[in-house]
Amino acid sequence: PGTTPPKHLPVQKGEEPTLELCYTAPERCLAVKGQGSALQAEVELPQTLEAPIREVRLSAA
Length: 61
Fold this sequence. Notes:
Layout: E1 8-12, E2 18-20, E3 49-50
Parallel strand pairs: 1-3
Antiparallel strand pairs: 1-2
């Protein structure tokens, strides 16, 4: 088990001091039969963000 992901990131030069993060999992993915429990997801986040910020949606290929 990993650490709990942050709910907010600090924003520099923005109208708001923080940005709320939203995490979602893909609806489905392919895995080798019997190895689904070994799947892990990892996201690297910066310590702070600098405004302006635009929404980005990441999806699994």
